[in-house]
Design goal:
With about 400 residues, the chain is α/β, with parallel strands linked by helices. The protein is globular and about 70 Å long. It has 13 helices and 21 strands. The two termini are about 20 Å apart. The strands form 6 sheets. It has an 8-stranded mixed beta sheet with strand order 12-11-8-13-16-17-19-20, with helices on both faces. It has a 5-stranded parallel beta sheet with strand order 2-1-3-4-5, sandwiched between helices. It has a two-stranded antiparallel ribbon with strand order 6-7. The longest helix is centred in the last third of the chain and has 14 residues, at about 380-394. α3 (about 75-80) crosses α5 (about 105-115), α4 (about 95-100) crosses α7 and α9 crosses α13 (about 380-394). About 45% of the residues are buried. It folds into 2 domains: about 10-180, Flavin prenyltransferase-like (Rossmann fold, 3-Layer(aba) Sandwich), CATH 3.40.50.1950; about 190-394, Rossmann fold (3-Layer(aba) Sandwich), CATH 3.40.50.10300. It binds flavin mononucleotide (FMN). Flavin mononucleotide binds near residues 15, 93 and 125.
């Protein structure tokens, strides 16, 4: 992919320790043929000297809204008009808060608020800051307004903490930027319904049985479909906490029966069904009172099969299902493909490292009636695009 050639990209750098990593991103953007303008906050210049970004971008770095030494144009407006995309990386808690509230008190925030092009941001901060409710709200507010977040994986942070808040790696940010232009509208006009997360088997008023699905793969697919122009219906069981754009239709469900009902409700207007959820296959009779017996034996019966229902009723619409397997993987996945009348099964061997539940990466094999394509380890968001690429050819 090199859709960034001849595009103008503003790279907004704010004052976080990850600013040094953005040198690599700027270099890669320039090498891909993009024109890059770096805007830095004053605090960002404490971390990396503007000279580094000037040398890498071949353009003057701008920090000061009132700089009158260079051009007669109102620079934040002229740059905003030229831009095809903006990436703010690292996006500090401070810059996120300012943009979420429309504050434009330096060049970076002023220029970004003047931009009409797609705006991505890569939050980067200490884990406690990242988990702080006000920061989450501000990130959520930006996402609702159409800013596209690029999150890093949990891991070691410069402050010594281990957790969320790490900036996404420059390669991941580059791929996401490239994807903006590469296939921005190939799903335009289509409605994509994605199921995500776990459902629960209620046992009594306080207890339930569930599974380990985080919903990350489903969320990545919904984001990819959204970025490619689709209308998204997101049928959400229990998942991690995601920022959801206001344009999505969201159905929050608790049980497998509720998930099926939500899928049925939207089935007529859906063009592509992507069943990435892990609905519980079983259900039981919920007792009215809390169970107090010493031992508990559950009688589970089969819950309704959502993918099978879609397979029976989809006509010419497309159906993608997921198979999380531990043994005899391909043959089990092929059986599932045929049994559910699906167009593609995404097979995860959950015994492989980096695959399956609760991680940001996945190793998958895309199986159709004619083909078997094993993918290498990649980010779930990248895999989501690979799945949509394949789906659109079926
Ligand atoms: C060594 C150091 C590292 C910092 N790293 C971060 C960071 O990763 N993320 C963040 O939100 N703030 C970080 N801060 C705090 C910001 O620099 C501070 O909130 C500043 O006001 C941000 O300004 P800006 O958003 O205008 O660039 C750091 C501060 C220091 C001294």
């Amino acid at each position: 992919m090199n859709a960034l050639k001849d595009k103008t990209v503003i790279v907004g750098v704010s004052g976080g320790i990850a600013a040094y990593k953005v040198c690599g991103l700027v270099s890669k953007l320039v090498q891909s043929g993009a024109t890059v303008h770096v805007a830095m906050t004053r605090n960002a210049t404490e971390f990396v000297a503007p000279l580094s970004f000037e040398t890498l971008s071949h353009n003057r770095v701008i920090t000061d809204t009132f700089d009158r030494n260079f051009t007669w144009e109102v620079e934040h407006v002229s740059l905003a008009k030229k831009a095809d995309a903006v990436i703010i990386a690292p996006a500090t808690a401070n810059v996120v808060a300012k943009l979420a509230h429309g504050i434009a008190d330096d060049f970076l925030t002023t220029a970004v608020l003047a931009c009409k092009c797609p705006i991505m941001f890569a939050p980067a901060m200490n884990t406690a800051m990242f988990d702080n409710a006000v920061v989450r709200e501000n990130i959520g507010a930006l996402v609702k307004r159409g800013f596209v977040p690029v999150y890093g994986e949990c891991g070691y942070l410069a402050c010594g903490d281990v957790g969320g808040g790490r900036m996404a790696e420059p390669d991941v940010i580059f791929t996401r930027l490239d994807g903006l232009f590469d296939k921005r509208s190939d799903h335009a006009g289509k409605t994509v319904l994605v199921t995500a997360g776990a459902t629960r088997i209620d046992i009594d008023p306080v207890r339930y049985v569930s599974n380990r699905s985080s919903g990350k793969m489903g969320y990545a697919l919904a984001c990819a479909a959204h970025d490619r122009g689709a209308n998204v219906v997101f049928v959400k069981g229990f998942t991690d906490d995601f920022d959801i754009p206001s344009s999505w239709t969201v159905e929050n469900v608790r049980t497998t029966r509720e998930m099926l009902a939500a899928v049925k409700k939207h089935a007529d207007k859906t063009d592509m069904f992507i069943m990435a959820a892990a609905p519980c296959d079983y259900e039981t009779k919920v007792t009215a009172q809390k169970i107090k017996s010493a031992a508990l034996e559950l009688k589970l019966t089969k819950a309704p099969d959502i993918a099978a229902w879609v397979g029976e009723h989809k006509n010419k619409k497309k159906l993608v299902i997921f198979a999380a397997e531990t043994d005899d993987c391909e043959s089990n996945a092929r059986k599932k493909l045929a049994a559910k009348h699906a167009d593609m099964v995404v097979l995860n061997d959950v015994t492989e490292s980096g695959a399956g539940f609760d991680v940001d990466t996945n190793v998958a094999t895309l199986i159709t009636s004619q083909t078997t394509e094993r993918q290498s380890l990649m980010q779930k968001r990248e895999l989501a695009d690979v799945i949509l690429d394949k789906l659109i050819t079926l």
